[in-house]
Specification:
heterodimer, A: alpha+beta, Alpha-Beta Plaits, three-stranded mixed beta sheet, B: mainly alpha, Formate dehydrogenase/DMSO reductase fold, two-stranded antiparallel ribbon, 16 helices, 1% strand, globular
């Protein structure tokens, strides 16, 4: 063969080997020093001792919206933003049915995957967290979330919170203008409760505000790693579903569908 | 000053600069609103969080693609005769990327944290990769454009040492061409993938977007380079262009458009099979809904089919007016495509309520502040190019005097006198 600018077999192999080495190098990103890893993203999910989940019983939900108000007060959310929404979802036997929609705390959260700065990340117990000090406000997560669970702070929230004090007292700082915010599963209540020896889902102080506020007990919260927790039992003994399961996001919020015969 | 003869021409030039300056002032006023009051002054919402500025950002990056493509052609493929065009394209690229940066600074909620992606890495994010590539490529463009400044007559007279240093960067042009090629191929297509990876938006969620973004960017980037060169030559007698060079690139653009239309056709056609919630409605929005004029006229017919016919017909292409019109159409078509892509996925929302994957429609019309700021960014780009043409000689096809110099900066033919 004429030795032209065509690659020889040896050169080709070298090139291929080099590319393979490059790819292998990418794999090394997984094994960077812990500090870098920490800066990069999230703790391995499932490594924690807890696996939090929320169960919402649509047969009980009356659409009163108390959960939304309690959420807004405890998390000091601006009036034009709602971390938790209650949406009308049709009728079952003349009875109105609603879907209460907090953040789904997805196992494979599109928002975490797309965030360019790692401001959205997983905690070991599965909570999808927001680092408001990292967020640059690009709103890619908003576009990526299939559940519309994220809201951008288009302006600063400076005035009084209309839901305070009637629905509770703020427990976390207000987010600044220009960052995206979302439901945090009241991680601060969970953490504070655990530190005080309480059981989230059982002790109200250690349980998300929306669950505590629900007047009909439609919301349950607890640890799926504990087979005796109420959520574990509910899911074991009832048919349940999650929103847009076809997307493979793996929500940690489960719904018990409204059904005939079940009472409110 | 020999003002008597030059006065009329100077007036036109100054009038042009004055118009741009007014637009830039309006843009600055709008930017002041954005930075002091926040993004509440826009018409963006949580349903449509990406609007006009993102379109300008994407378009500015797309029409800057001539830089990497021509530099690769000249320094890697050895097509040396296109070197003068690569020079123009590099300067356009530098401006285009700085326009994109300006748009992003307006658009992100926390411009004070623009550097976060460089420090807090999420290698899983396409947008992170885009940010890194754009940042690195911007540096490459600065290095590639350094000789332009080093060769400028006024700098060589005042700061000969600095000018020589800047001009000497030219020796590394092949290295920068390799870097530029890699970085550009990555992020130009990743900008398509930025949309393409989102499951939540069915009309976006497809792999072809990356391919369409890079192909349309090559067409748009080359078009703007040739168009800007021709316009400069048309408006100033001092600019000399080699029309055979522009003609052959224009022909090449014609073929790129044919390739683009091929991909675009199958991309759209594949989406029409079987109803898929969200995606089908998004396609309907493009072909028969609110975006249909922009799609059929702006994107497909005037933006690609018509210019492909003109640019592939030697007689039509030979007519400079026709050629310039066709190139302008291509640039407009690329902008229309970016707008359509960005909008189609956001105006159609898929609900998550079970048993009822209903589609909701929303709308978006940019606010006055968005228009003013966008106009300011575009005016900045035009102003920078105009000044570049005048003081840096970025459009200059006269005797190719930059073949591998040995040590000393090559004297640029004194076109600016």
């Amino acid at each position: 063969m004429k030795k032209s600018n065509l690659l020889t077999r040896r050169e080709f192999l070298k090139l291929a080997g080099g590319s393979a080495a490059g790819l292998a190098g990418l794999q090394f990103l997984q094994h960077l020093p812990p500090l870098v890893q920490k800066a990069m993203a999230s703790a391995p999910v499932g490594a924690g001792t807890h696996r939090w989940a929320m169960v919402i019983d649509q047969a009980k939900c009356t659409g009163c919206g108390y959960c939304t108000k309690a959420c807004k007060a405890h998390n000091d959310v601006a009036p034009e933003i709602a971390w938790n929404r209650v949406i009308y979802a049709g009728k079952v036997k003349d009875k109105d049915v609603f879907i209460a929609r907090p953040c789904m705390q997805c196992q494979h959260a599109p928002c975490v995957e797309v965030c360019p700065v790692g401001a959205s990340y997983y905690r070991a117990d599965g909570i999808v967290m927001m680092d408001y000090d990292k967020c640059i406000g690009c709103r890619y997560c908003e576009v990526a979330c299939p559940y519309g669970a994220r809201a951008f702070n288009w302006e600063a929230f400076t005035g009084p919170n209309p839901e305070v004090p009637e629905w509770g007292q703020p427990e976390v700082p207000r987010r600044p203008r220009g960052v995206v915010e979302k439901c945090s599963l009241c991680f601060h209540r969970i953490d504070r409760g655990l530190a005080a020896g309480q059981t989230p889902g059982v002790d109200p102080d250690a349980t998300p505000a929306c669950v505590v506020a629900c007047p009909v007990g439609a919301r349950k919260f607890g640890d799926l790693n504990d087979p005796e927790s109420e959520v574990s039992k509910l899911l074991a003994n009832n048919p349940s579903y999650r929103l847009r399961e076809d997307l493979g996001t793996g929500p940690r919020v489960y719904y018990l569908p409204a059904r005939e015969g079940a009472s409110a | 000053m020999s003002a008597k003869i030059k006065l009329p021409r100077f007036t036109l030039f100054r009038a042009w600069l004055a118009v741009l300056a007014v637009a830039m002032a309006a843009g600055l006023a709008a930017a002041w609103q954005v930075f002091t009051r926040g993004l509440v002054v826009t018409n963006l919402t949580d349903l449509v969080p990406w609007g006009l500025w993102i379109t300008i950002d994407l378009s500015a990056i797309a029409v800057s693609a001539g830089a990497f493509f021509l530099c690769a052609a000249v320094y890697l493929l050895g097509l040396k005769r296109y070197q003068p065009l690569a020079r123009t394209a590099t300067f356009i690229g530098l401006i285009g990327y700085s326009m994109a940066v300006l748009c992003l600074m307006l658009d992100i909620g926390r411009p004070d944290r623009f550097w976060h992606a460089l420090v807090f890495w999420n290698p899983h994010s396409v947008l992170w990769e885009v940010t890194m590539c754009v940042t690195l490529y911007f540096m490459v463009l600065v290095m590639e454009a350094a000789p332009l400044f080093g060769q400028a007559e006024w700098l060589r007279r005042r700061r000969p040492r600095l000018a020589a240093l800047l001009a000497s960067v030219h020796h590394f042009a092949p290295v920068f061409a390799v870097l530029g090629l890699g970085l550009s191929l990555l992020h130009q297509s990743s900008l398509g993938a930025t949309y393409g990876v989102l499951k939540a938006r069915p009309i976006w969620f497809r792999p072809d977007l990356s391919v369409l973004f890079i192909v349309s960017a090559v067409a748009g980037g080359l078009s703007l380079t040739v168009l800007a060169s021709m316009l400069s030559a048309a408006f100033s007698r001092r600019m000399r262009v080699d029309d055979s060079l522009l003609d052959s690139v224009a022909k090449f653009i014609g073929w790129v458009l044919v390739g683009y239309l091929y991909f675009r056709f199958w991309d759209a056609f594949a989406m029409t099979y079987t109803y898929q919630p969200g995606r089908t409605e998004g396609l309907e929005l493009l072909t028969g809904g609110a975006l249909s004029f922009n799609f059929w006229a702006g994107e497909i017919f005037i933006g690609a089919v018509l210019p492909a016919f003109i640019l592939l017909n030697p007689r039509w292409r030979g007519n400079r007016l026709f050629r310039m019109a066709a190139l302008a159409c291509v640039v407009g078509g690329v902008v229309a495509y970016r707008w359509d892509i960005n909008m189609a996925g956001q105006l159609v929302l898929l609900t998550y309520v079970p048993q009822e994957l209903a589609v909701r429609y929303t709308s978006y019309v940019p606010s006055l502040v968005e228009f003013a700021a966008g106009a300011g960014v575009i005016a900045y780009g035009l102003m920078a190019f105009t000044l570049g043409v005048r003081y840096l000689n970025v459009v200059h096809h006269a005797p190719l005097s930059e073949p591998e110099p040995a040590g000393q900066p090559t004297p640029e033919p004194a076109g600016a006198a």
